[in-house]
Design a protein that fits this description.
The complex is a heterodimer of chains A (132) and B (136).
Chain A (H helix, E strand, L loop, with lengths): L16 H15 L6 E6 L15 E6 L5 E3 L2 E3 L4 H11 L4 E6 L5 H13 L5 E3 L4
Parallel strand pairs in A: 2-5, 5-6
Antiparallel strand pairs in A: 2-3, 3-4
Chain B lengths: L17 H15 L14 E2 L3 E2 L6 E6 L5 E3 L2 E3 L1 H14 L4 E6 L5 H13 L4 E5 L1 E2 L3
Parallel strand pairs in B: 1-8, 3-6, 6-7
Antiparallel strand pairs in B: 3-4, 4-5
Helix pairs in contact in B: 2-3
The chains are: A alpha/beta (132), B alpha/beta (136).
Amino acid sequence: MTKKRRFKGGEIPTSSMADIAFLLLIFFLVTTTIDTDKGLGIVLPPPGDMEIEIRKENILNCLINSQGKVLLDEEPTNVEQIHRIVGERMRANDKLVISVKAHPKTAYSDYVRVIDQLKMADAKRISIANSN
Amino acid sequence: MKFSKKTKISSEIPTASMPDIIFMLLVFFMVTTVLKEYSGLPVNLPKAKRIEKLKSKRHTVQVWVSKEGLISIDDRLMGVDDVSLVMYDKRVADPQIVVSLKGDEEAEMGLVSDIHENLREVEALKLNYSSKTLVD
């Protein structure tokens, strides 16, 4: 004997849908990383050995040795002083190009500190010479 | 004089469309979330003051350089010469790619300079020396 079952409405309960959606929303809110990478931005020169002639008085040589000591235009310079000196030089000569050259054994942090100092002096024309 | 209420404005917030609104927000966050993150190499990032934020993670490739001289991109260790091969594919796929160089403080400049050269070769010119904020 079969009893005919009556179909009692096939509705999906939608009252909790908002709650479920909220839960998912909170999950993605939490997992989204707002803090992006931070660092010193620099643009490398395009490939090819382009020789651009720059007049000698427009170049400021900045050499970093393996101990992290800086030679700014043949003068041993304290790293913290670079931004001040470069700033002065840039005010005197707005065509100034700063050429940074590091010894292959220089620590990366010393190099970043020098680049940071140049950024602090708002130097736009930074040339990075190949270490090797 | 007798004032009578002319209009019957219901003071309820319509909640019927709330799931839709929330779903929309949900979809937005799902799309913007970048779940895939590479663990990379253990590095002590250098510290700097004048740091700038990278715009989006989507256009960023992270290149790890450890103090031992190991290079890792997308959790794969590689030699210096492979950097240009990997970066070439990445730059073709996304021309506005930015390389985030996560170098250890004690990494040697000789190696970093080689990476520079490799990146220049494939015209991945936008570089960012990843660093922490220096507090003084």
